[in-house]
C-alpha cells in the first residue's frame, strides 16, 4: 500500500529545494554587488587620504610662510 503523504512530502521537498536554489542565486548576486560597492568605497578612501594629506601640507606651508590670515567678516 502506498503512503498517502509521500506525494505531498515530495512536493514540499521540491518547493524547499527550489526556494533554496533561488536564495543561493540571490545571495550570490548580493555578494557581487557588495564587492562592487566595497571597491568603489576603497577608491573614495584613497581619495580622502590624499586630500587630507594635501590639506595638512598646505596648512603647514602657509603656517611656515606666515601666510595664514584670520578669516575676515564678509559684509
UniProtKB/TrEMBL annotation:
Origin: domain of life: Eukaryota
Protein name: Uncharacterized protein
Organism listed in the record: Kickxella alabastrina
